[in-house]
Amino acid sequence: MANATPVMEAIDETLAGKRPVFEVVYEWATTVDHKKIGLMYIFLALIFLIVAGIEAILMRIQLAVPNNHFISPQVFNQLFTMHGTTMVFFMGMPILFGFGNYLVPLMIGARDMAFPRLNAFSFWISAFGGLLLYFSYFGASGLYGAGSAPDVGWFAYAPLTAKVFSPGHSTDYWTLSLLLSGIGTIGTALNIVTTTICMRCRGMTMMRLPLLVWLFLITSCMVFIAIGPLTAAQIMLTLDRYIGAHFFDTQAGGSAVLWMHYFWIFGHPEVYILVLPAFAFVNEIVPVFSRKAIFGYPAMVAATVAIGFISLSVWAHHMFTVGLGAAGNTFFVFATMVISVPTGIKIFNWLATIWGGKIHFATPMIFCVGFLFQFLIAGLTGIMLSAAPFDWQLSASYFVVAHFHYVLVGAIVFALFAAFYYWYPKVTGRMMSETLGKWHFWLFLIGFHLTFDFMHVPGLLGMPRRIYTYEAGRGWEMWNLIVGIGAIFQVVGTVCFIFNLIRSCFRGEIAGHDPWDAWTLEWATPSPPPSYNFAIEPTVHSRRPLWDLKHPEDPDSDYE
Amino acid sequence: MMNTGTIPISTQTEPAWVLPSRGTVGMVCLIVAEAAIFIIFFVSYIFYLGKSLTGPTPAQVLELPIFGTVCLLSSSITVHWAVSALRKNNVRNCALGLASTVLLGALFMVSTAQEWYHLIYDEGLTIRTNLFGTTYYALVGLHASHVIIGLVMLSIALVATLSGRMKELHTERLEVLSLYWHFVDAIWVVVFLIVYVIGR
Ligand code: HEM
Ligand SMILES: [Cu+2]
C-alpha cells in the first residue's frame, strides 16, 4: 500500500471493515495536519462548486428564451446572490487556500504550518460560514418559509439590505456567514505569512522561494487589508439590522454610497486575492512543461508586489456610474489602467518562459495555455471598462458579466484545473487520465468561449444584468441561447473532470515521487507525502533544489 | 519517471540559519488586519461628523476622558516592565507589572462604563438616536471589546505568573501579548484624537 492515498486508505479500510466509519471521520475532523486540512478545503470547495454551478445553470435555463416563466423573479434574485457569494467566498477562496495549505509548507521544506491548530480552526469556521449561508434556505423565515435565501446580490447594496426593504433574516444569514468565513480567511492568511517567513528550511532565502510561495505570501498580505474592511462593514450592517444603528440607513442620514466604497475597498482587492494564486499555479507549471527556469524571477516578484499595492487604490472603478465627480473619476481611471503594466510584465514573462522551450503539452500545460490567452482578453475588456465614459455605457450590463467571468473562469478556473492535474499525483500517488483530461479541456474550452465570448454581445446591445426575463424582438434571444448552450458544454466538461478525479484515485497509473521531472521541494517527498513531510529537514542552495540533485554536474547553485 | 530521495543534508558548515519568531510575525499580521477594521470605523466616524439629522451633538455631550486615557496609556509602560522583568527571570516583578496593567486597564473600562451610563441615562444618547450615537458607540465599543479581550488574556498571564507557571522561557509569549496591548493603546490615542479632540 506504499502508494495509496490517505483518502483511499481510509476508504479501503472502512470498506474492509477494519476501521469503523466513525473513527475515520473523527480522525479527519480533529486533524491539524496541513495536508489534510488542505484537502478538506478543496473538497468543501468542490461541493460548493457543484452547488453554485447548478444555480448558474438554473439562471441560464431561465434566460435561454425570452418571456420565460421557469422561475420567479424572487427565486432569480436569490439564485444570482447565492451563486456569486458561493463562488467567491466558498468556492474560490477555500480552493485556493486549500492548495496554499497543502503546498506552501512542502515547498519551503517545513513540516507543518506555523500554527496548526489555528489552521484547523480557520477551516472549520469557514466551512461553518458556508453551511450557515445555505441554512438560510430553511431558517430565514422558519421552516415554512423555506426558500428565503439572501436576494440582495453578492454586493448587497444599501439600502436594499435595510430592515424595511429586506425583512426577515435572509440578509442576516448572508452577513453572518461572510463575517465568519472572513475570520477564517484572515486566520489562514496569517498562518501562511507566518509559515513562509518563519518556517523556511535552511538556505531557503526569500529570493529562493518558489514563486508560488511568493504569490501566496502577497495574497495573504492583501487578505489582511481587504477582508478587514469587509468584516468591519458586516459588523456595521449587523448593528444596523439588529439594534437599530444607522450606518447605511438612508432615512436617518446614513449613506448608501459609503457601503459601496466599503464593499469595493474589499471587493476589488478580493478579485486579485483570487487571481494571484491562479498566477502562482501558472508560475510553477509553465516552466516545468517548457523545461526552462522561469524568465525574470525578480521581475515577477516585483510585479506581484506592485499589483498588490495598486489594486488597493482602484476600487472606485466599480462606482463610475455613482457620480464621483471629475477628479475622482480621473484618478480611478488612471489608477486602474496602471494595473495593466505589472500584469503585462507577467504575461510577457510567461511567454518568454515558453519561448524556445521544449514544450510538453500535457493536460496541465494546455490548461495554462488557455489561461494565458483568456487572461489577456479579460485584461483588455477590463481596461475598456476602466475608461469612465465607456463604463457609463456598459456598467451593469452583460458586458461586465462577460468581463469578470473571463477572469474568474477563463483565468482562475483554468489555472485551477491545471493545478489539479499537476499536483494530483503528489497528493494521491496516482496520475489523472490524460485522455479524459484532454476531453475535459476541449469541452470546457468550447463551452467557455460559447458562453462568455457571446455574452459580450447582448451587453453591447444593452441587455442589463440581473434581469430575470426579457421581451422577444430586442435582438438578445439568439445570443442568450448560445450562451446557454455553452453552459451545457462546460457542465459536461466538469463532469469529465470530476469523474477523472474519482476514477484516477483507484485506477490511475502509479506516479512515483516526481512524475513531471520538476524541481521544487514538494517533489522530493514520496507521493503522498508522509504526515511529517520530510524525514530529514532539507537544505537548499538554489531556486531549483531538485535540479541540483538530479544534475550534480551542472547545478543551479553554481550560478546564483 | 525519476525517483529521487529526500534532499541530503549538506556536510559543509553553513552560516547560522535564524528566522524571525512565529509569535511576533503572527501578532503583527493580526494587528495589520485589526488596524484595517479600525480604519473603516474611523472613516465612518469622520464621514458622519456633523451629518446627524437630530441632536445631541458631540460638542454638547462629550467630555474629555482624561482619567481613563492616563490609566490606559500608563498600562503600556507597566506591561513593558512585566516583560523586561520576566526576561531577567524576576517573576515577582513580572507579576507586579501584570497586576498593575490589569488594574489600570480595568480602571479604563470603569471610566468608559461611567461615560456610557452618563450618555445613555442623562443625555439620552443611544446607538439609535442619531448618526453620532451610531458611530460613537460602534467605534468606542469596538475598542472597548479589544480592551476586554486583552484584559482577559493578561489576567490569565497574571494567574500563570502567580502560580509559578510563567518562567523566563515564556518571555516571548508574554512579549507577543504585550504587542497586542500596545496596539490597543495606540488605537486609543487615535480614538481620543478623532472622537474627543477633532470631533468636538
Ligand atoms: C487588468 C485588470 C482589470 C481591469 C482594468 C478591470 C476593470 C474592471 C472594471 C472597470 C470593472 C467595473 C465594471 C462595472 O461594474 O461597470 C470591473 C468589474 C469586475 N471585475 Fe475587473 N478588471 C481587471 C481585472 C479583474 C480580475 C483579475 C478579476 C477577477 C479575478 C476581475 C473581476 C471583476 C468583477 C468580479 C467585476 C464585477 C463586479 C460586480 O459588479 O459584481 N477583474 N473590472
Ligand atoms: Cu475592480
From TrEMBL, chain A:
Keyword hit for Lyase: no
GO cellular component: plasma membrane
Repeat keyword on record: no
Main location: membrane
Family: Belongs to the heme-copper respiratory oxidase family.
One Pfam family per UniProt: COX1
UniProt record, GO biological process: electron transport coupled proton transport; oxidative phosphorylation; respiratory electron transport chain
Biological role: Cytochrome c oxidase is the component of the respiratory chain that catalyzes the reduction of oxygen to water. Subunits 1-3 form the functional core of the enzyme complex. CO I is the catalytic subunit of the enzyme. Electrons originating in cytochrome c are transferred via the copper A center of subunit 2 and heme A of subunit 1 to the bimetallic center formed by heme A3 and copper B.
Keywords: Cell membrane, Copper, Electron transport, Heme, Iron, Membrane, Metal-binding, Oxidoreductase, Respiratory chain, Translocase, Transmembrane, Transmembrane helix, Transport
UniProt-recorded name of the protein: Cytochrome c oxidase subunit 1
GO molecular function terms noted in the UniProt entry: cytochrome-c oxidase activity; heme binding; metal ion binding; oxidoreductase activity
PROSITE patterns attached to this UniProt entry: COX1 (PS50855), COX1_CUB (PS00077)
Top class in the EC scheme: translocase
Subcellular localization(s) per the UniProt record: Cell membrane
InterPro entries hit by this protein: Cyt_c_oxase-like_su1_dom, Cyt_c_oxase-like_su1_sf, Cyt_C_Oxase_1, Cyt_c_Oxase_su1_BS, Cyt_c_oxidase_su1_bac
Involved pathway(s): Energy metabolism; oxidative phosphorylation
Domain Cytochrome oxidase subunit I profile, residue spans: 22-541
Signal peptide as annotated in the record: none
Catalytic activity: 4 Fe(II)-[cytochrome c] + O2 + 8 H(+)(in) = 4 Fe(III)-[cytochrome c] + 2 H2O + 4 H(+)(out)
Membrane topology note: Multi-pass membrane protein
